[in-house]
Amino acid sequence: MIAKSIRIVISILLVGLIFAGCSEQPSQSTLEATIPQPTDVPTQPVSTFTPMPEVEPTKQSSSEIIENMVERMNAGDVEGSLAYFDEDAQAYIIGLPPTGMETYIGKEKIRALWQDSVANHFQWEVNVPRTDGEIVIVYAKTWHDFTRLLEVAPLDYVDVYEVHDGKITTYGTTITPGSLAKFMPAFLEVVPPEEPAAQSTEQPVSEMTVNLSGGTCTIENLAPLKMGEIKVNFNITDQNKDQYAISIFSLDEEKNILDLMASTVGDPPLWAKILLMKEEEPKTDQSYTFTVEKGPIYVVCWSKPPALPIGNAGPIEVIQ
């Protein structure tokens, strides 16, 4: 597992940047991501914006709310941009190091991210290809002092928003696999990868508990798993979404948690094998079993609407 100290250092380096935003996959899963990859996103950043006049958010369409929120952010108007967010808004940054998942619950947490981004001359360009009721899909390009320094700007993202009663209640941004492949070599020159962890001396277990609460998920007493049949207890206390889900993967040897998270948009990758996929209603406790033949494995939790990863864990060691 990634060392806590490394995670903290890298998170500080990326806090502004990350704002930028399974061969057996069940075919009928209602949480299967179907958002297309970006194909026609403008390539030039917008350098300056004039702050917009005050507009009653409830009189704007969902796409206009997103576009106006972005325009205010690009103009350095943090509070004007945040005015479009619900007080309890949830934001998820997906696919970037160290863990592939950053979670910000509540407008105050998002404010710190917005302020840091403005301090680093963040620019954000969006193209809204479609909306589906309260759900808005966005193709995004971002510029940030850190990515400019690494000479990898702009980076491409696929964003998804839920807009309810004129306010953004959920925001998720996922780096595209192509941009991740461009970013990581430059990033690793600045932050070299840590040495592989030694094999755990803990006694392997055949049971794990995943708790979904506060807009994300965690694993109780994370320990190596024993090869064979594994019992999973999935405890959901949240109830602000229609559905929640848990998925467990094994990956081809050359892939990692970042590759997996960047691939949660679009078709399931051939290099990821899904070992378990279960969907549940809010406030539900359920137990399931799956069989693991080799490790490591990775856990991804989801919520809907919109269909979005909200937490993860891995790599989790598997011992014979």
How does the SSE layout of this entry go?
Layout: H1 4-18, H2 62-74, H3 78-82, E1 85-94, E2 101-105, H4 107-119, E3 123-132, E4 135-143, H5 145-149, E5 155-164, E6 167-175, H6 177-190, E7 207-213, E8 216-220, E9 225-226, E10 228-236, E11 243-251, H7 257-262, E12 272-280, E13 285-292, E14 297-304, E15 308-316, E16 318-319
Walkthrough of the structure:
- With 320 residues, this protein is α+β, with helices and mostly antiparallel strands.
- It folds into 2 domains: 4-190, Nuclear Transport Factor 2, Chain: A; 207-319, Immunoglobulin-like, CATH 2.60.40.
- It contains 7 helices and 16 strands.
- The chain has helices at residues 4-18, 62-74, 78-82, 107-119, 145-149, 177-190, 257-262; strands at 85-94, 101-105, 123-132, 135-143, 155-164, 167-175, 207-213, 216-220, 225-226, 228-236, 243-251, 272-280, 285-292, 297-304, 308-316, 318-319.
- The strands form 4 sheets. Strands 2-1-6-5-4-3 form a 6-stranded mixed β-sheet.
- β14 (297-304) and β15 form a beta hairpin.
- It is globular and about 55 Å long.
- The model is unreliable at 1-58 (pLDDT under 50).
List the keywords.
2 domains, 320 residues, Nuclear Transport Factor 2, Chain: A, Immunoglobulin-like, globular, disordered N terminus, 6-stranded mixed β-sheet
Summarize the structure.
The chain has 7 helices and 16 strands. The chain is an alpha+beta fold and 320 residues long. The chain is globular, with a radius of gyration of 19 Å.
